[in-house]
Amino acid sequence: MTVLNLHLVSDSTGETVGTVAHACMVQFPDVDAEEFVWPMVRTKGQIAEVIAEVRENPGFVLYTLVNPEISRILEDGCRELQIPCMGILDPIVAALGGYIGTKARARPGLQHVLDAQYFGRIDAIQFALAHDDGQSLKDLGGADVLILGVSRTSK
């Protein structure tokens, strides 16, 4: 079995680059990928750490970095090491921007924004858990909806 060092670099959680890498690697059943995951990479210093690790453990580099300066530093470092390096979002974002006729915002982590809507959902879940099975009735008037039924009926 072939072993491949696979460096997954992201300026966010790393979920996207990991999902794409896994979808690709299943096409190579005789290859065992040793993953080096680098989430929240947003500075030149962090890129230097990634490049140092790639130097120690050479292998393919996939990234989802939206900051062009940070991407360029990673690509330049990999080119110097003669290591393949590919941004998986770049061709799609460029094609979408060309089709829509606008430029991308190039801000990391936008799909994981913690906004008022998100916190509202969290508050609703916490309210439901606090009042489940009649545990608390004191502020029940704050509910938008009341669901009544026998316990353990998956209301």
Would you kindly provide a brief summary of this structure?
This protein is of the alpha/beta class.
Largest sheet: 4 strands, parallel
**End-to-end CA span:** 50 Å
Report the average pLDDT across residues.
Answer: 86
Helix-strand category = alpha/beta
Low-confidence segments, given as residue ranges, are none
| Number of H- or I-type helical stretches | 5
Spatial strand order of the main sheet: 2-1-3-4
Secondary-structure map:
Layout: E1 2-10, H1 15-25, E2 31-38, H2 44-56, E3 60-64, H3 68-81, E4 85-87, H4 90-100, H5 116-131
Parallel strand pairs: 1-2, 1-3, 3-4
Describe the structure.
This protein has 155 residues and is α/β, with parallel strands linked by helices. It contains five helices and four strands, in the order βαβαβαβαα. Helix 2 packs parallel to helix 3. The radius of gyration is 22 Å and the shape is elongated. The model has no long low-confidence stretch (mean pLDDT 86).
Key terms:
155 residues, alpha/beta, four-stranded parallel beta sheet, 4 strands, elongated
